[in-house]
């Protein structure tokens, strides 16, 4: 799948949609008026950009996700590791953990993730 880049406001709007979906476009207009102080045309224009990027669809005024929030952020994370750490997950984890400690519960959760990944 092609890389999808979002600006800060687009990301906030996308998160709003994911949180409330399925949601009507008229409900989105009301929510963005409160959250961003947007007019109807701005809400529709930004929604159109998010649809054009392949994140959402608008079927007769009902907006739903084409890509879930988890799928989107997973793609973004993988892209970041590829671009910044030459695709090396161990290098990313080493940089992330530098000077940090994790709890026994966090370590156990990571072990479970690794075990599941090895089984796949």
Written overview of the protein:
The protein is mainly alpha-helical and 120 residues long. It is built from six helices and three strands. The chain has helices at 8-20, 25-35, 40-52, 69-85, 89-97, 104-119; strands at 23-24, 56-59, 62-65. The protein has a three-stranded antiparallel sheet. The longest helix has 17 residues, at 69-85. It is elongated and about 45 Å long. The chain starts with 7 loop residues before the first helix and ends with a helix.
Keywords:
single chain, 120 residues, mainly alpha, three-stranded antiparallel β-sheet, 6 helices, 3 strands, 66% helix
Annotate the secondary structure layout:
Elements: H1 8-20, E1 23-24, H2 25-35, H3 40-52, E2 56-59, E3 62-65, H4 69-85, H5 89-97, H6 104-119
Antiparallel strand pairs: 1-3, 2-3
Helical content band:
55-70%
Our Rg estimate from Cα atoms comes to: 18 Å
Number of helices: 6
Q: Note the gap between the termini.
A: 21 Å
Query: What is the general shape?
Result: elongated
What structural class results from the helix and strand content? mainly alpha
Main sheet, how many strands, which sense, barrel? 3 strands, antiparallel
Determine the mean pLDDT: 93
Query: Roughly what fraction of the amino acids lie in strands?
Result: 5-15%
Flag low-confidence runs. none
Order of helices and strands: HEHHEEHHH
What is the β-strand count? 3
Strand order of the largest sheet: 1-3-2
